[in-house]
Model the fold of this input.
Amino acid sequence: MARTLLLGLRLFGSAPGAEAFEVEGDRISWVGAADAARERRPGATVLELAGAAVTPAFVDAHVHATAAGLLADGLDLTGCGSARALLDAVAARVAARPGALVWGHGWQDQAWPDELPSRPAIDRAAAGAPVYLSRIDVHSALVSSALLDRAPGVTGAAGWSIAALSGDAHHRARRAALAAVDTATRDAAQVAFLADAAARGVAVVHECAGPDISSAADLATLRTRPGPEVVGYWGEAVRTAEEAVELIAATGARGLAGDLFVDGSLGSRTAALRAPYADAPGCTGNRYLDAAAIGAHVAACTEAGTQAGFHVIGDAAADALLAGFDEAAAATSAAAVRAAGHRVEHLEMVDTGQARRLAELGVVASVQPLFDAYWGGPDGMYATRLGWARARGMNPFADLATAGVVLALGSDAPVTPVDPWAAVRAALEHRTSASALTAAHTLAAHTVGGYRAAGDRSPLAGRLLPGGPASYAIWDGAGPLDGAAGNPRCLRTVHRGAVLHDGLPVVD
Done:
């Protein structure tokens, strides 16, 4: 079997003092010092990479691939500074593509000088075209009447509004928008997303699908694409082990987890809170699952031998989550729950006692550091929604790690982009310094943690060690791990010996 010897490197996520490694087939066959590599040269293809850095290939533990990929040709609204600018952008897109679906994403209204546009205003800009414009958090959307005509039952559903839809009304509108995407466009979106992820040093993505987010067909198609490995989750609640087994068989999912919503988001004021929003007195958000439903789902998945998991952001949602897990542990056993390796997404408002209990139950937390970078701090959106006293305790990565909760980093793309080094930097430079992670813990959370979140507890997964999978990324520097200002460029991404992205210069 062919051997490749890589020299002149700085290795991260490997044995102390490692400067070179060897790959044979899909495994790492040797790791060691540069001097010891000389005797391994005979018969090997030698790759000299003076000054390069190598990390385990990254795992993005929470993505929505099709929705993110659609933005390659969609309407990017992240720069819109007003409702007027949004309407102008829609009108320009419709003029360029009359009658075609307008898929837009990224608007944020908290600093706009004008109010959210009403549906009649959207309709005037849309000129009869179906329009779906998701807020940056994807928990509310502005839509046109032409799109609503394709969404049965949306009128009067929970979250219905003459402006932005949220809750069930939004879920119905989103399903209609996705159904309006033609096959060729969807295929191109998935391919573009996976290629971009590979070019950023990502070898594995966790697709968080579900009936309120995408479709089983979308998940099945995504898993056939070349590029990074797709670990699929399906966010739909069950009450019995038999239901869990049937749903896993029907979807091919790794587990019934991911975005199974306990609540919504802070930006859309749908995250479930103990006390009202600071900027919306009387509003405490949405509650989609109570403790009984959570407990039944966890118990059913535990008995079926599959992962359960939930989307949890607000503190009231965290309360329901822990109560539900305790009910499941009582119905099965704490040991059985722990062995199942369940997961929770986001977990932004959790206290120390809850973190300890989650660690006791073996729950992995899939978290997004860029949420804090985008919306944290005393002047950020979280402080606007909650007040700084509550907002400063959000995304307590260090407390979770200290409690023993395994962390897995991700993007929640398209909410934030797939950009692992930006996520690493955000975790290192948390806006509340006491919540920041160390460099070693951050790298582990974006590599080893991703495998743990998918149920892989091998001591070699996500590490550059002999006998482990040849899954690595080569960079032109180590960026945040060295305290450098810029982020490094990916030169090559390899997963289990297969090259997913190659930007190394060709040497004659």
